[in-house]
Design goal:
The chain has helices at 19-83, 108-113, and strands at 91-97, 120-122, 127-129, 132-137, 141-142, 149-150, 156-160, 167-170, 185-191, 200-207, 217-226, 232-240, 243-246, 267-275, 278-285, 289-291, 294-311, 316-323, 329-337, 358-365, 371-373, 386-393, 405-413. It is α+β, with helices and mostly antiparallel strands and 414 residues long.
Length: 414
């Protein structure tokens, strides 16, 4: 908002006044009042939007907390049942997730002497993967010098829905396609209390620009739903060979007991490269809120990104720690990949992933932080207080998909 430009009337004591200056001053005051009103109105709209966002996210979190509370009750009952079922099984396990993983050795000298390429870590989307070389956006163009982002007019987005009732209000849907976390698209569907359905959905069909790059190949889709964990990303499809197909690996292999399919966090999918110009996304909202005396379903996205991502083909290394106690025997190690469904290997052939998608070795941490490998015979009767699993990740040799490691599980016995 600019500073005021109006001045005092300029009337001189016992002297003539200037009608021109007086009229100009009155005009300036009028224009400033108009500007003040417009700014005040914009502030009110911004506050109403912020209030609506907070209410929607609060409702999503409340539903999520209630679900967690119910889960705690279920776990407490299971613990009670287990206490009455002694003795316990002799095999145990520990699971470390990507948040505990590292790409550097604890000992600086050892870290500096190892020239192995390190994996890329993404805790926001819950995976470690191959080092990224480049990521080419398919929905916008970014000026590397100025940072300006342009969403081309050729990008087309149409919105449909299964329901027919209610009042639908959308903000600018293209705000979700500019790669910025500062903008978003939101749809508000309001109903009278008596006619409110159980859920509301939106079916988004995206036609990608064909002139941005020299090919239509994509292998990455990103969706940051709004409100996060309050909207279900029900389906993501692409049009390929005149037929809609669900993207490979849509059902992500989460170890979490809470389904991310029902309570969708931020999600990123990597799959084999495929030439695509149309994508279809289905979002579902099942938690309406009270808004202005009506029931309102709020659903949208902070970001919807489509990319062609290129990775180092030589692989990447990641380290996973485990804190151990007492004397134990190492039984086995399991690797959990978020995009397991996108691999060329059948789900029944997990035994073929080692040597093709990954290799690993177990190391123990010495007093000075140096990690030394354990031989097979050292798996039994081990007492190291901290173990590390050193994993090398490789692209799928048959379809080129980069593996997204989300967790490592260590099975042991006493």
């Amino acid at each position: 908002m600019r500073m005021p430009t109006s001045k005092p009337g300029g009337a001189r004591f016992r002297g003539p006044t200037s009608s021109h200056e007086y009229n100009q001053n009155e005009d300036d005051k009028y224009l400033e009042l108009v500007e003040l009103y417009q700014q005040s109105n914009k502030n009110l709209q911004d506050l109403q939007e912020a209030h609506r966002i907070v209410v929607a996210e609060n409702a999503a979190l409340q539903a999520y907390i209630q679900m967690l509370t119910d889960r705690i009750g279920t776990l407490e009952q299971k613990i009670t049942d287990m206490q009455g079922a002694l003795p316990y099984p002799p095999t145990f396990f520990q699971t470390s997730f990507v948040q505990q993983m590292a790409t550097h050795y604890p000992n600086i000298s050892q870290d500096n002497s190892d020239s192995t390429l390190r994996a890329d870590m993404d805790t926001e989307y819950r995976y470690a993967t191959l080092p990224m070389i480049a990521q080419i956006p398919k929905t916008y163009v970014k000026n590397d010098l100025t940072g300006e982002i342009i969403v081309p007019d050729e990008l087309q987005v149409s919105l449909g829905r299964s329901n027919s009732g209610g009042t639908v209000v959308d903000t600018n849907v293209y705000e979700a396609f500019n790669g910025s976390d500062d903008t978003f698209w939101e749809r508000v569907v309001t109903y009278d209390f008596s006619s409110c359905p159980d859920q509301e959905d939106v079916i988004m069909e995206i036609t990608l620009p064909s002139h941005l790059v020299n090919n239509l190949n994509i292998n990455t889709i990103v969706i940051n739903p709004h409100p996060e964990r309050g909207v279900q990303v029900a389906n993501v499809e692409y049009l390929y060979e005149d037929a809609w197909q669900q993207i490979p690996g849509f059902q992500q292999n989460d170890l979490a007991t809470i389904s991310t399919a029902l309570y969708s966090p931020r999600k990123k999918w990597y799959f084999p490269q495929v030439p695509v110009q149309k994508i279809r996304i289905t979002l579902v909202q099942k938690t309406p809120i009270d808004l202005g005396g009506k029931k309102a379903f709020i659903l949208g996205a902070q970001e919807i990104g489509v990319y062609l991502t290129l990775f180092e083909q030589g692989g990447g290394m990641v380290l996973t720690p485990f804190e151990m106690t007492g004397l134990y025997n190492i039984e086995s190690v399991e690797h959990v990949f978020l995009n397991r469904g996108a691999f060329s290997f059948d789900q029944k052939l997990d035994n073929q992933l080692e040597g093709n998608i990954f290799d690993y070795e177990i190391l123990k941490e010495e007093i000075d932080g140096t990690l030394t490998p354990l031989s097979g015979r050292e798996w039994s009767g081990q007492f190291a207080q901290r173990l590390w699993v050193r994993t090398m990740l490789y692209p799928d040799p048959y379809n080129g998909v980069n593996p997204c490691l989300t967790a490592v599980r260590l099975n042991y016995s006493r």
